[in-house]
Amino acid sequence: MKALVRSGRTPASSVPVQVYTPQRMRLPRPGSYLSDLWDRRHFATHLVRTQLRAQQSGTVFGQLWLIINPLMLALIYYVLVNILRERGRGADFLAHLTACIFAFHLVSTSVTSGAKSVVRSGKLILNTAFPRSLLPIAAVLTAFVRFLPTLPVYAAIHVYAGLPVGPHLLWALPVLVELLVFALGVGLLVAALQVYFRDLSNFLPYVMRLWLYASPILYFLAEVPKGVKPFLAWNPLVPMLAAWSEVLHDGNAPQVGHLLQGAAWAVGALLVGGLFFVSREREFAVRL
Amino acid sequence: MSSLSVSDAAVPVDDRADHPLAVKVENLSVVYRTSIEKKPTFRSTVTRMGRGQRVVREVEAVSDVSFEVPTGTVLGIIGANGAGKSTLMRSIAGILPPTKGRIEVHGQVSTLLALGVGFNGRLTGRENVVLGGLARGLSREQVQEKYEQIAEFSELGDKMDMPMRTYSSGHGARLGFSIAVHMEPDILLIDEALSTGDAHFKRKSAQKMRELVKQARTLFLVSHALGTVKELCEEALWLHQGRLVMRGPTDEVVAAYAEFQEVGETSTTLEDF
């Protein structure tokens, strides 16, 4: 390639040609966008690696913190729930609580770090043309890698609580995929919104805290009073976390309804968040 | 090479027929909406609602610009602040989409735009180089290979493994220049990014630029240092308020621009880099 191009007499066809034209509907062609995304996948994976390194996840205490932080959260809520209820709850509830808190923590870190992902990369966006959605994607991947060390912790609690172990646990995988896709959809949405409303990431922790209370984490879905149930239908995390608990706590295959509703929310979130992000991303360079 | 005026800029030039096109810009207009606020927030949007103020402004940064650049040209782009030079650069790099018109770019573009590299101050110089290269679409092996050259050229030594927030602005600029020129671009866009750096590095970067020019790469140089433009560029393009005022041999364009600015070619405007 070197020899060809430098001669100055290269036939124009041997060098890559890019043509930039105004975008109709502000959306690029999906095929070319996705292939662009795939071509730059190493950027996302390397970004994940550097983010993990920056967060000291490589050291022993850094790793430990990844476990201690959500575990403390789970223990605090376990104690709190036991104080608030007249009859204390057993070890199986602790398993439900930790499983759901760890899953929720995965979603909430994806969303909160996704929100900052674009704004934080200002200089790179101003100087380089690349699919901007790689930034929130990397944020979700980072959150996922940080979620992994909590799995053995949960496994220990699961066994301690005497909950069933068997092939049914594999049902957790599709639920986990739903959670990740949903987190990515929301992450894309808030990452784009953050460009226009820089205080969004200040509100997010409060939203997340409310979301935690409105999800079947500190209680079982079956315990929710009839009058409140219709409201929970609007919480996308309800079917996913319900299915999560059905697999891990109840020891069953998840209800098909929960699995399907969760999938619908996840795909819907990805579509809405993804389309909004991609339709806006070419504008980020002048908004940062 | 014949001198080109605005009117025939879009017409193919015969004596350049053996040089393929590098960049073709046709009737390019770039309008963008930008917020007047430094940091747009939800809170300020809500508090503003009652007052009916608009803070989003439309800016027509480039309007109806057409030109062609054959491979191997070193094109200087001059103009007052706010002339649309940086916007034009970003459009050619594919960072800003055109509002109207069409841009055709033949070859790999590498940019060294006003803000330099280093998108994350917490990461080391090395990580910034690698991430920047990967974002430009290089493979891991290519980045690794280029990294050595970049580190050597920038003469940053051990500093490469320190967080970029510890760099002085000169160090940052050195790294930025090294990255841009070592990406082996077919087209290199440089936007006023050479002003920092000490005398030694300035000389070194000027030499590197001349080397690139010799290799018949296409170079776009945005600069207020008319001396640099005159020295490096054979052709120049003068933008004013988004419009193409003049294009032609550097001497003529620079002279016209200097006259327009009523500054004349004093030592200040000619100052190197």
Question: How would you describe this structure to a colleague?
Answer:
Chain A is mostly helical. In chain A, 70% of the residues lie in helices and 1% in strands. Chain A is built from 14 helices and one strand; from the N terminus they run H-E-H-H-H-H-H-H-H-H-H-H-H-H-H. The radius of gyration of chain A is 22 Å and the shape is elongated. Chain B has a six-stranded mixed sheet with strand order 5-6-7-3-8-9, sandwiched between helices. Chain B has a three-stranded antiparallel sheet with strand order 2-1-4, covered by helices on one side. With 273 residues, chain B is α/β, with parallel strands linked by helices. The two termini of chain B are 27 Å apart. Chain B has helices spanning 42-49, 85-92, 125-135, 140-154, 169-182, 199-214, 226-232, 250-260, 267-270; strands at residues 21-35, 56-70, 74-78, 100-106, 109-112, 187-191, 218-222, 235-240, 243-249. The relative contact order of chain B is 0.17. Strand 1 of chain A pairs antiparallel with strand 4 of chain B, so a sheet runs across the interface.
